[in-house]
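Hi all, long-time lurker, first post. I run a small reading group and we've been trying to get comfortable going from sequence to structure in the token notation. Rather than ask abstract questions, I figured I'd post a concrete chain and ask someone more experienced to write out its structure so we can walk through it together at our next meeting. Sequence below, copied exactly:
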Amino acid sequence: MYTITPTSSHCLIPVYDIVVSVPGLSFSRSFTVTNNTFSVDWPSNNSPITQNGRISITYLIFSEVINPITGQRECTTDFASTVSASLNVAVSPMNLTPGIPTVTSSRSRNIAEFVAESNNATSFKWTITGGSILGDAYADKIRVAPNAGSCSITASVIGIRTGCLSINFSGASAPITQNIPRPVVNSISLITLDAANNPSLPNTVNVTSDPSAFSYTYALDDNLNYSFVNNQSRSITTHQKSVKLQCENATLFAGYLTITCRNACGTSDEKVVELSCLDSGAPPILNFNLSARAKVYPSKISAGQMLNVTDITGDIKRIELISLANRSTTITLNKGLETEGKDHLKISTNELSKGLHVLQIRYADGTVKKQKILVK
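-- Answer (accepted) --
Happy to help. Here is the structure in token form:
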């Protein structure tokens, strides 16, 4: 459909003649103009290239005069001149078949992108497995979001050539797959929290993981000395790649933070982080000397196995107190019955429950040796 926009001349005859021509394509049409619009039934172009059509329009302009009685402009029957207008029109080939598309792919976080190229295609029909197209589904470039539980997205495409009187299709491209594996939480070392910062300056644990992860779960164990800031829950799921923790009191007993992250494919393996707590704002209650002369071994034992304590200075009898403690109980041992010579003693673990314990050895001069013991 074409529209004629008349000139400002008052005495313009709207249409005098319309000529439509395409080199090499002979056809004759009659045209009806309604409200300054008309249509052209272009011939089929069976050649392999685009043909250049042309619409030419000629107008007649008549003379005009001023009516001496009414003062209005009026047209006479006297021919004055002609005016012409023309428009070039591309007549596309009708029977071109698009080539089989080639497809490339990439991924940004959870979104896969596929790009198709095909000679003579005017649009594309995509077949997607494992996801849904975002936006225009017939474009040469599409973005695809994975379905829940999908670890890969596969795409193939057909090229489409749409002409005035026909639609032609190419063959399907070879399938191409973009994988979205389960995310991974990178290694996180021991986190030391400071009770002196509680709660005004909380400690923040930052997580690095696969960029495709969209949620994170942080879970604390049952050691209530450690907690999330402003949250009483022991487990938090959030979109944030960090979490704020605090500890109440300095202690040798570790806490454990378990971290997982999730993307469309699934949930990562657990990453367990050991938490420890100190108090930088408080003076030490005991002389905590990790280089004290007592040596304790082994650090991992089975219930009932004997612990060995050796004093390299031969001063084992100056030990005043030996105790083993876990989160709920403290056992004070009678070291005198277990002394073997001047530099060695054995400690029975029959009364210890499974789990983490802290062995404390205190000498008469105030020197203290503390060591973690795991009873299996």
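A couple of things your group might point at:
The chain has no helices and 30 strands.
The longest strand covers residues 73-91.
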